[in-house]
Threonine synthase (Aliigemmobacter aestuarii), 461 residues
Amino acid sequence: MRYISTRGQAPALTFGEAMMTGLARDGGLYVPETVPQMSKAEIAALAGLSYEDIAYRVMRPYIGDTFTDDEFRGLIAKAYAGFGHAARAPLVQLGPNHFLLELFHGPTLAFKDFAMQLIGQLMQAALAKTGERITIVGATSGDTGSAAIEAFKGLSNVDVFILFPHGRVSEVQRRQMTTPAEANVHALAIDGSFDDAQARLKDMFNDFAFRDRVRLAGVNSINWARVLAQVVYYFSSAVSLGAPHRTVSFTVPTGNFGDIFAGYIARQMGLPIDRLVVATNQNDILHRALSGGEYRTDGVKPSISPSMDIQVSSNFERALFDAYGRDGAAIAQLMDELKTGGFSISQGALQTLREIFSSGRCSEDETLATITRLRDQTGEVLCPHSAVGVKVAEGHLGATPMITLATAHPAKFPDAVERATGLRPALPARMADLFDRSERVSRVPNDLEALKALVLERTGH
Ligand SMILES: Cc1ncc(COP(=O)(O)O)c(C=O)c1O
Ligand SMILES: N[C@@H](CCOP(=O)(O)O)C(=O)O
């Protein structure tokens, strides 16, 4: 199994190399050269297995010889041992043909834990073999950062720097990033949006001298291993509703397009998925792109679902790569145009995307109303991101069962939930003292040179 870049100019890598590399050296994202297939019989055989066993069978073909079978099984077991639900990703029924996939039972209460806990294990195992020391820099709109810190804090061979937009994450999210006391954790509040943080992160990767000097690694969904780990719950949930004998659809609250791209990969592998519905908040670039064919940024608008306040959706590049017939030069050209505001998707590529993806947008008022209504009708308390998903899914219900991804726990966004329901959801007991812990954070400018200097100084490179 080899991985190739979406821009066609970087060397093909093994799974282990792609995981440790993050962004390709031509600025592209790694994708599998060919997507492994699962037959109907292999998918049917997943029924009744534990989440860990499904994870092993779905991911094993992608790993090559980076880990032995036993090592890989052991790392998966460790990754999910700390989850607060035996099923890991339980399904709850919301209506006759509508199901909610709860992805918030991990240590930091968001779907990011599914991939980050696993990457933490895989990277540690890989580093133990090479004896290397790495510097992880991540950009976050709130959840990736806390999940990454949880997965890497205290490790002696990893420094982890997390850039989050100052004042634009919830207080719970901020405290999850700023209260860990471990010296290898560096929470950085950047003056700007998530898009600025992600752009500076990519700038660091594109500065090869810096990248090599600090041995830069990435744990955002630009890293293929992140996407791969998220493919698993598409299989586990679809199989529990009768796949491969029954086709399902998914609605995914979307920002950086990583989670829904994992669903696309599950579909490419053979899982019978009818529609993948992109659900956006008022930062609706993906909805506009899929409905009108124009991918144009118009500035991030802060919302009550802050983790989705994104305009430059990194992983859309991976979907475009396939839609443009895997033409790396065409993708490089589009990404150049994006630097000056956006691009038009060709008619052929748009048609290809629309064969799989649908989309919808949910306003701020609709988000709050959905939280209120769902609590009243079903007892389920949604976080605002999951509410965006549910509202958009409701516009796409039909004969095929719809699974909406619940991407975070409502207690991460207590202000929005209180506005909608009058109730402040409680944090789990293990986090009950989160507001009593002292915070450690550095305010940083949206400036590449200043950020590089800070990383060099803190890591002693
Ligand atoms: C709670 C929550 N929901 C949805 C999303 C969007 O996911 P993606 O960026 O993979 O599209 C994010 C951020 O990634 C998130 O933190
Ligand atoms: N919503 C994310 C943004 C980063 O996305 P990623 O999946 O690329 O890491 C967050 O919460 O940080």
Notes: The longest strand covers residues 158-165. The mean pLDDT is 97. The radius of gyration is 20 Å.
